[in-house]
Structures are given as structure tokens and as C-alpha cells.
């Protein structure tokens, strides 16, 4: 490799070749690319994996992390995603604790630092892959390909396909998995630091490498594939196996007693046994922890895997591989989600997209032939290791061993891209060696680095908030129903219901079975009082997915508004059957019973809501108000005090309890609660109006007059307040006349 590495000397100055400066340059480049995402929001999957994940909160026992998936669900649940990444979740929890809450900047800072660390580690990894593993007499590793290692690490640091992993906080799983993957590989290399002519090794470092591989898997599933890469490295670099020579001997049926050098001792066999047993043991333990087998995905997640024809499945899987290769080669069309019709199925060999498959395999077969048949041992080693680094970490996402829950996912290319960068660097070095136009090659390399850096900066900006992220996907995947759904959801959250309806309708048009889009569209139509269409959409949603609890609850709300009380009660009950711990549904069921004057049933439903969710303010308030209206003042007071103990700063509860205390002639305590509620929300007219009524009853007429006037200033249309104010004024006038 020395002469190929030297061919890059006109591109990479010798001043940056010392390891410290090389690593500094790589780390700085990675920071420049993704620093723009530092102050971004939590976006897309961050909401479920971080903001709504109870495993990040202090009240959740740390032990629960080892029994829950990445999203906080129990692994034993049939609905679990089975993504077991407890160490990644632990870092999220530490982030939450150290930053004092869900402050996105601290989470993003850790991701940017991790990417920088991975990029810096790759300088050492590429040095080994390109230059081989040689040590000085003092045990220091020789850097035999510093230019190639630096260029490959730079290409990795600025690759735009990494933006999802770095700018999206949930991408930390890939970053941590890659970090321990590389540490495992470098640890395996250290096993041969004191290698002598007999090829001895350190068993300690081999075992430590296996342990680091297990740690990598606890961060992201593909981390375990490092054991396969270590095995390939051992066979090719340490054992110096010539695959072509072995194949030729087999074909010639050469039974000569001379064995390949690597087989002359039992060292390699022992290490392969350790790697195999370690990998099998780790996978067995993980399978036992998963409990109920692999996760269940739907057709919209990975349509090719549900195709009846094996040929159709094979063609589409290979097309997905070609798309992944294209993202590595030309990372300009990037999307946060590639599912739901974004990539239509190839259903026959007559589809023009089959050309992409042919191009992919033409390139791969060409590289494999060079890796096996080249007379240059360095070239064989570099191409084989580059292909190994490209392919081995990608295998868990390939659909070859089990069905995965996506079509294309940029995040799974984080580690494989290192293999691509290695192959690209080698190609550029070879090209530079065989051409006299050195400046043209230098311009090409600098252009790639500059354009990729620019794309990273732009893409990082798109990941700063959901509005930019979702809209950026419309031009890349216009057929993706989930893209339209997310744009609509973002607009609805901002209050732009008209625009949201348009995007939700398009999502349903693109995917007529998209129940979540139907549910959200039905909700908006319900709020706009378009109840008939809302009922049709929600009924269709529960027909398509009978266990969709949220849609059943929303259907019940619509039916309640249409005065179809029996159907509404049945819908609420069905929702609770499918989701037993559903406080909001119990709350709405209580409202239905209150409308039907079934007061005991209403109180029981609201009590269930508060048991499941003690901070459910609306349920507490409705209990207090119903008990107050039915004359059960003592019980209303008890419920109000219980609620305020659980939610001491809820001004609406203070207001409701203050009303009850006022009717019970506990004026002083009632006044204190009214004043606390007003301090929290000074511009709420009813708070001032009811405090004025309290003062009116209490005989503090001047204070009553003051708060009546404030209330009417805030809400001049309040007829009850105006009537009470009129009574007070007449009373004050009468008192004034008596005094005269």
C-alpha cells in the first residue's frame, strides 16, 4: 500500500500526517458539518424515544431499562418493537438528569461529540486496514498508510448520509454502536501487539474485544457484527490467507502436505472458536431477553417482505441494496422516512429499475474478482476488508435473516459507509497513481469533501425542526403517505387546520388503509363540527384496525356529539378493552354518563381516570363540579383537597375548590384559593367574578365591587356577573341613602 499511499502526497500535505494533527483535522471537520444541529428541537422519533419515554425519568427504576425496549415498552409485550438498546437509553437518562430536564441542546451536543469521536477512531482503524498491522520493538503500532487513513476518515466525517444519526437524537444508538464496534476491532488488533514469528496472541484482548462487541450490541443491534469483521481481519491480515491460492488448490485437487501458513498452529482456530462461542452466547442471551420472538411488522413498513413471490422479494431486496449504494455514492436525495409507497414495488423483470440491480452487481462482482484474483497481496487485502466493512455491518438490515421494519433507512448506513469510504479512497489512490493529471485528482477530492460538507450543513439545518424536516421530504418522496401525514400533523399542532386537512386527505389517498391519518383527520373534522364525515372516517379506521383504541375513543366522542349515546358508550368500552390503562377514555366516558344524568357512573369513570393518571386535572375538576352541583359539598371538598395534594399548582382546581368552600361559608380559605388562582392566571374573568361573589356574600362589598369591575373589563359579555354587579350597586346605593 506504501506506493498507493504515496500517490496522495500531492493532495495531503505532510504537515497533517502526524496522528495528532490528522485526528484534530478529522474531528474539526465533523464538528463543522453538524454543529448547526446543536440547538435543534426534538424531532420525529425523538418524541417517542425520549420525551415520552418514562425510562428516562428518575421515578422509573434503573432495573426496568433491562426489561424494556428502546421506546420504553416491555419486551414481553406483543406490541414491543424488540429494539433492545438499554445502554443507549441509559445515556439518554444521564442526559436528562445532568441537564435538568428535556433540553435538546445537551442531547444534540453529545451526538455531535460522539460522531467526532467515531471519526477520530477511524483514523486508527483505517491505518490498520490500509497499512496492515505492524509494531515496533517497543510495541507501538506503525502507521504505514497515513495519507489514505486520513482521507478515508475525512470522507467518513463529512458524509451527508450520517445526518440522521447525528442530528436526530435517536441516532445515538448508531453512534454508540459504532463507537464500541471500532473499540472492539482495535482491541482485537491489540491482541497481536506482541506477536512474534510463532503468531502468538493475547487471549485477554480477544475476550475484551468480544465483550466490547456485546456492549456495541446493547447500544445497537448491528454492533455484534464486529465479531465477523474481526474474524475476516484475522484470517486475511494475521493469517495472510490467499483465498485465490486456496481455491486453485481445491480446484486442482492438490493434496500436498503443505498447509496455508495460518493453519500451521492452532492459534487461529482457537480465536475463531472464541469469536463464534462469544457471538453465539451473546445472541442467545439477547434472544432469551426478547421473550416473545421477533417483532411483528406491517406491510406498509416493508412491503417487499410480504410479497407472495420469492422472485419479487429477491428483486426488490436487491433494488433496496442498490438504493443504499446510491445514497452512499450520491447523498443528495435524503429523506427521514422511505416507507409507505415512497419506493413502489418492482413486480416484473420488465421494470426499468432492474437496471439498478444489474449495475450494483456488476460493480460488486468486479470488486470481488479484484479482491480474489489480483496478484498484489495488498490490493487483495484492502479490497476484501473494504467490502467486509461495507457488507458485514449491513447484514442485519438486509432482510436475509429476518424481516426488518423499514425499506431504506439512512441510519443503518452509518457503519457500512466506513467500508465505502475505504474503497473510494483506494480507488482515488489508484487513479492518482496511474494518471499524470495530479491536480485534477486533487480538485476532485477537494470538491467531494467541500460538496459533502456543504450538504451536511444544509441537511443539519433541515433536521433542526419538524417543519423543515417534513417539508424537505416532499420533493424526495412525494408518494410517501407518512411524509404528508407528518406535514399535516405539524400544521395541525400549529393551529392551521385547513392546510392540515389537505395533507391528511392526501395521506389517506396515497394509502387508503392509513388509520392514523384517518384518526387525525377525523379529529379535526370533529372540532370543525363536520361530524358525519368524521364518523365515517373513524368507523373505517376501526374497521381496518379493530384494536386501534384511540380511534374507538374519538369515534365515541363524535357519536356522543351526535346524541347517539348508546353507540358512544359501546365505542368507549371497546377502546378500554383494547387499552386497559386509558385515562382519557375514562374521562370521556364520564362526560357521557354526566350528560345522561348517570352521576354515580360518571364519578366512577372519572375516579378511574385519576387512578390511572393522578395528574388528570380535567377528571378531578369534573368530579368536584358534579358533586358541587348535586349538593354534595362535603364530598366535593374532600375530592378537591385530594386533587390539590396531587397537583398543588393547578389553578383550575384551586378555583373549583374555592367555589365549594365559599358555599360552605369557609370564606377565609376560599378567598386564599381564589387569590392563588388569580395570581397564576390574572386575566381569567370568571376567577375575578366568583371572588367578587364570595366577597358579596361575606359582606366585603368594596372588594366585591372591585373584582366585579375587573371581571367585566375582561369579559363584558358575562351576563351573570353584570347582574350580580347591578345588585351590588343597588345595595351600595341603598346603604349610602341610609347613611345620609
From TrEMBL:
The keyword Transmembrane helix applies. The chain crosses the membrane at residues 112-132, 144-163, 169-189, 201-218, 224-247, 268-287, 354-373, 385-406, 412-431, 440-461. It is a multi-pass membrane protein. Keywords: Endoplasmic reticulum, Glycoprotein, Membrane, Repeat, TPR repeat, Transferase, Transmembrane, Transmembrane helix. Pathway: Protein modification; protein glycosylation. Residues 293-365 form the DUF1736 domain. The lineage of its organism: Eukaryota, Metazoa, Chordata, Craniata, Vertebrata. PANTHER family: PROTEIN O-MANNOSYL-TRANSFERASE TMTC4, PTHR44227. It is an enzyme of class 2 (transferase). GO terms for biological process: endoplasmic reticulum unfolded protein response. Its EC number is 2.4.1.109. It comes from the Eukaryota. GO terms for molecular function: dolichyl-phosphate-mannose-protein mannosyltransferase activity. Belongs to the TMTC family. PROSITE patterns: TPR (PS50005). Transfers mannosyl residues to the hydroxyl group of serine or threonine residues. The 4 members of the TMTC family are O-mannosyl-transferases dedicated primarily to the cadherin superfamily, each member seems to have a distinct role in decorating the cadherin domains with O-linked mannose glycans at specific regions. Also acts as O-mannosyl-transferase on other proteins such as PDIA3. Pfam families: TMTC_DUF1736 (PF08409), TPR_16 (PF13432), TPR_8 (PF13181). It comes from Muntiacus reevesi (Reeves' muntjac). This is Protein O-mannosyl-transferase TMTC4. TPR repeats lie at residues 481-514, 515-548, 583-616, 685-718.
Amino acid at each position: 500500500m506504501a506506493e498507493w499511499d504515496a500517490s496522495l502526497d500531492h493532495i495531503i500535505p505532510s504537515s497533517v500526517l502526524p496522528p495528532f494533527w490528522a485526528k484534530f483535522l478529522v474531528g474539526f471537520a465533523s464538528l463543522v458539518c453538524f454543529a448547526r444541529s446543536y440547538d435543534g428541537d426534538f424531532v420525529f422519533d425523538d418524541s417517542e424515544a425520549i420525551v415520552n419515554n418514562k425510562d428516562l425519568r428518575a421515578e422509573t427504576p434503573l432495573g426496568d431499562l433491562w426489561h424494556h425496549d428502546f421506546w420504553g415498552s416491555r419486551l414481553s409485550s406483543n406490541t414491543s418493537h424488540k429494539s433492545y438498546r438499554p445502554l443507549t437509553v441509559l445515556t439518554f437518562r444521564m442526559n436528562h438528569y445532568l441537564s435538568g430536564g428535556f433540553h435538546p441542546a445537551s442531547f444534540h451536543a453529545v451526538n455531535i461529540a460522539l460522531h467526532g469521536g467515531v471519526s477520530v477512531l477511524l483514523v486508527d482503524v483505517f491505518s490498520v486496514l490500509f497499512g496492515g498491522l505492524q509494531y515496533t520493538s517497543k510495541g507501538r503500532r506503525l502507521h504505514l498508510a497515513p495519507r489514505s487513513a486520513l482521507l478515508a476518515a475525512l470522507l467518513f466525517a463529512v458524509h451527508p448520509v450520517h445526518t440522521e444519526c447525528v442530528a436526530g437524537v435517536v441516532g445515538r444508538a448508531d453512534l454508540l454502536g459504532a463507537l464500541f464496534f471500532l473499540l472492539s476491532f482495535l482491541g482485537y488488533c491489540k491482541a497481536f501487539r506482541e506477536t512474534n514469528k510463532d503468531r502468538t496472541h493475547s487471549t485477554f484482548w480477544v475476550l475484551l474485544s468480544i465483550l466490547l462487541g456485546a456492549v456495541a450490541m446493547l447500544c445497537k443491534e448491528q454492533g455484534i457484527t464486529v465479531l465477523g469483521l474481526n474474524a475476516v481481519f484475522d484470517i486475511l491480515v494475521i493469517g495472510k490467507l490467499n483465498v485465490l491460492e486456496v481455491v486453485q488448490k481445491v480446484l486442482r485437487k492438490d493434496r500436498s502436505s503443505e498447509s496455508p501458513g495460518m493453519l500451521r498452529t492452532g492459534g487461529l482456530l482457537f480465536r475463531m472458536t472464541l469469536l463464534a462461542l462469544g457471538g453465539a452466547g451473546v445472541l442467545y442471551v439477547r434472544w432469551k431477553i426478547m421473550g416473545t420472538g421477533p417483532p411483528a411488522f406491517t406491510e406498509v413498513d416493508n412491503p417487499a417482505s410480504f410479497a407472495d413471490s420469492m422472485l419479487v422479494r429477491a428483486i426488490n431486496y436487491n433494488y433496496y441494496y442498490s438504493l443504499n449504494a446510491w445514497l452512499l455514492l450520491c447523498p443528495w436525495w435524503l429523506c427521514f422516512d422511505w416507507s409507505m409507497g415512497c419506493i413502489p414495488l418492482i413486480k416484473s423483470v420488465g421494470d426499468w429499475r432492474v437496471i439498478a440491480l444489474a449495475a450494483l452487481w456488476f460493480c460488486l462482482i468486479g470488486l470481488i474478482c479484484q479482491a480474489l484474483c489480483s496478484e498484489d497481496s495488498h490490493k487483495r487485502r484492502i479490497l476484501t476488508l473494504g467490502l467486509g466493512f461495507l457488507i458485514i455491518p449491513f447484514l442485519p438490515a438486509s432482510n436475509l435473516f429476518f424481516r426488518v421494519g423499514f425499506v431504506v433507512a439512512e441510519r443503518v448506513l452509518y457503519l457500512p459507509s466506513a467500508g465505502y469510504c475505504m474503497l473510494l479512497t483506494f480507488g482515488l489512490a489508484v487513479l492518482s497513481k496511474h494518471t499524470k493529471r495530479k491536480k485534477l485528482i486533487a480538485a476532485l477530492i477537494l470538491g467531494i469533501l467541500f460538496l459533502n460538507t456543504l450538504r451536511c450543513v444544509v441537511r443539519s439545518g433541515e433536521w433542526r425542526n419538524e417543519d423543515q424536516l417534513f417539508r424537505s421530504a416532499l420533493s424526495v418522496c412525494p408518494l410517501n403517505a407518512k411524509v404528508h401525514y407528518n406535514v399535516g400533523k405539524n400544521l395541525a399542532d400549529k393551529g392551521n387546520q385547513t392546510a392540515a386537512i389537505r395533507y391528511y386527505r392526501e395521506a389517506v389517498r396515497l394509502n387508503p388503509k392509513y388509520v392514523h391519518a384517518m384518526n387525525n383527520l377525523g379529529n379535526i373534522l370533529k372540532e370543525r363540527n363536520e361530524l358525519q364525515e368524521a364518523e365515517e372516517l373513524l368507523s373505517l379506521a376501526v374497521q381496518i384496525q379493530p384494536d386501534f383504541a384511540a380511534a374507538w375513543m374519538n369515534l365515541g366522542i363524535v357519536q356522543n356529539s351526535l346524541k347517539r349515546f348508546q353507540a358512544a358508550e359501546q365505542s368507549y368500552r371497546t377502546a378500554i378493552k383494547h387499552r386497559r390503562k386509558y385515562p382519557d377514555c375514562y374521562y370521556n366516558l364520564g362526560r357521557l354518563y354526566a350528560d345522561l344524568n348517570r352521576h354515580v357512573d360518571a364519578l366512577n369513570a372519572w375516579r378511574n381516570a385519576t387512578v390511572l393518571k393522578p395528574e388528570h386535572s380535567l377528571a378531578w375538576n369534573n368530579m368536584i363540579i358534579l358533586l358541587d352541583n348535586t349538593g354534595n359539598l362535603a364530598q366535593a371538598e374532600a375530592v378537591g383537597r385530594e386533587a390539590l395534594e396531587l397537583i398543588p399548582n393547578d389553578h383550575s382546581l384551586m378555583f373549583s375548590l374555592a367555589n365549594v368552600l365559599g358555599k360552605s361559608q369557609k370564606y377565609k380559605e376560599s378567598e386564599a384559593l381564589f387569590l392563588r388562582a388569580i395570581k397564576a392566571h390574572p386575566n381569567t374573568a370568571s376567577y375575578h367574578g366568583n371572588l367578587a361573589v364570595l366577597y358579596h356574600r361575606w359582606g366585603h362589598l368594596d372588594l366585591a365591587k372591585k373584582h366585579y369591575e375587573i371581571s367585566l373589563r375582561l369579559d363584558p359579555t358575562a351576563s351573570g356577573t353584570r347582574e350580580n354587579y347591578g345588585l351590588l350597586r343597588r345595595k351600595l346605593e341603598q346603604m349610602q341613602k341610609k347613611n345620609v
